[in-house]
Specification:
Layout lengths: L3 E6 L25 E11 L3 E11 L10 E9 L4 E11 L4 E16 L11 E19 L2 E15 L5 H11 L7 E13 L11 E11 L9 E13 L5 E12 L10 E2 L13 E2 L2 E14 L2 E13 L10 E11 L6 E9 L4 E7 L4
Antiparallel strand pairs: 1-2, 2-3, 3-4, 4-5, 5-6, 6-7, 7-8, 8-9, 9-10, 10-11, 11-12, 12-15, 13-14, 15-16, 16-17, 17-18, 18-19
Length: 366
């Protein structure tokens, strides 16, 4: 790829406290013993030069394979003094009746601007995002698989554009809007309802469903720089087929409602989790939809393979227009890291615009 010259992943994996053997044989608590893993990563990109980092997670003792508490995250640093830190707690308590999920990230890291809309444009302007974000979602299970929760969010961002691109920036602000280019802060409050019958949140193997409807509003009354409402629908299903193989699919829709929405808060296609094959933020607008399917195949011991395909698009809900459907497809390998079924994922993906990408992450796309 143009901006990705070399990726080297040093997969030095440390996992402790496995159950004896490769599968769970003793049906007595604790079902899952505590474990942790760490995956060092080295890479080179035009925007960052050489960078180094690690991704890892800690998984608590659990008497249930379907509800495992964990703290995961990643840290990256480049020789150009760029950095990003991401932490994701997933904690069950009160006899697994209550659940707290969240995300904290802070970064000073480069990205690229491609404009807004579903049309491929010859826009490719570098910038640096200096930002922080904190999201917390406490919830309560009213039934074993049904929960209600609250969304709390706080974030702030400053975009830095080098002097030689200031003239381009002035043009883009006039063409696509200025929201998000100046420093801003957002306070959000919302709620969600979730149905989750998965036998395991990291790698389901039994027939199960996941449905989540979430809403979050950022309001100037709360101290936000803009009035923005976010609504997301996430529907997934996992269907066992033959000898440990699983067919999984996901329908995802995401919308941002507001007169002015910071461009980095808009829904986007691409990245490591949705419509793999496109660079993240290549297409972005106030509405996004996507359907993706994946066939997961056990190979040997901890090793698995996957074949996947996805399609979707973005559009302006106030002035809808349709363009070329965005399609991504590819294949990958999975290596199970611990008894909680957390996988190290390596994907090679392509898109219908003639591009390809490599992704190395921990946990599945969905």
């Amino acid at each position: 790829m143009r901006h990705l010259v070399l990726i080297v992943s040093l997969c030095c994996i440390s996992v402790f406290a496995f159950a004896s053997g490769d599968s769970i044989k003793v049906q007595q608590p604790p079902f899952v013993k505590k474990s942790w893993f760490a995956v060092p990563i080295a890479f080179y990109q035009e925007e960052t030069s050489f960078g180094f980092g690690a991704s890892g997670g800690y998984y608590f003792n659990s008497s249930s394979l379907s509800k495992i508490s964990s703290i995961s995250g990643s840290i990256v640093y480049t020789i150009l003094n760029q950095a990003k830190i991401n932490i994701n707690p997933r904690i069950y308590f009160n006899n697994k009746k209550c659940y707290l999920s969240g995300n904290f990230n802070i970064k000073y890291y480069p990205d690229r601007y491609y404009g807004i809309g579903n049309v491929w444009r010859d826009i490719d302007m570098p910038y640096t995002s200096e930002s922080f974000e904190l999201k917390l979602s406490p919830s309560y299970y009213v039934l074993p698989d049904l929960s209600f929760g609250v969304n709390l969010a706080f974030q702030g961002e400053k975009i830095i554009v080098e002097q030689q691109y200031q003239q381009q920036l002035a043009t883009y602000r006039q063409q696509f809007g200025s929201a998000g280019w100046d420093p801003y802060f957002m306070w959000g409050l919302g709620a969600f309802i979730q149905y989750d019958s998965r036998d395991n949140q990291f790698y389901p193997q039994k027939f199960s469903n996941f449905v989540k409807l979430s809403a979050l509003t950022y309001n100037k009354v709360l101290g936000s720089s803009f009035d923005v409402t976010s609504v997301t629908l996430d529907v997934r299903q996992y269907v066992p087929t033959w000898v440990g193989q699983v067919f999984a699919w996901q329908l995802l829709a995401d919308v941002r409602i507001g007169k002015d929405v910071p461009f980095r808060m808009l829904p986007t296609l691409g990245g490591s989790d949705n419509i793999r094959g496109f660079r993240e933020r290549r297409f972005t607008d106030n509405f996004m939809w996507e359907f993706q399917a994946e066939y997961r195949i056990p190979i040997w011991w901890r090793l698995k393979a996957a074949v996947f395909c996805s399609f979707g698009d973005v559009m302006d809900i106030y002035h809808p227009s349709f363009n070329k459907l965005k399609v991504g497809y590819g294949l990958g390998l999975r290596c199970r890291l611990n008894q909680a079924r957390v996988n190290l994922r390596f994907d090679v993906s392509f898109n219908n615009y003639g591009e390809y990408k490599f992704n190395i992450t921990a946990t599945e796309a969905f």
